[in-house]
Amino acid sequence: MSYFIFGIGFVLFLIYIIFLIWDLATKPKKTIKSEKKIDLDDNIDYDGMGNQGRV
């Protein structure tokens, strides 16, 4: 029974590691896309709330 529990934990850990590596591998592509979006926005409006705070 303990080998069965260990096996389930090991499989879940492997799934976690696979998705972690996959996310880290695709993250640079995601940041490049978001940086291009920031360049198109207002260069003073970094919080994304518009000009509500400026008087």
Description:
The chain has 1 helix and no strands. With 55 residues, the chain is mostly helical. It has one domain. The chain is elongated. It starts with a helix and ends in a 15-residue tail after the last helix.
Q: What's the domain count?
A: 1
Which structural class best describes the helix and strand composition? Answer: mainly alpha
Q: How many strands?
A: 0
N- to C-terminal separation? 68 Å
Q: What amount of the residues lies in strands?
A: under 5%
Q: Measured on Cα atoms, how large is the radius of gyration?
A: 21 Å
The main pleated sheet reads as: none
Helices and strands, in order, run as H
List keywords for this structure.
55 residues, mainly alpha, 1 helix, 0% strand
What's the topology here?
Layout: H1 2-40
Structure summarized in a few sentences:
By secondary structure, the chain is mostly helical.
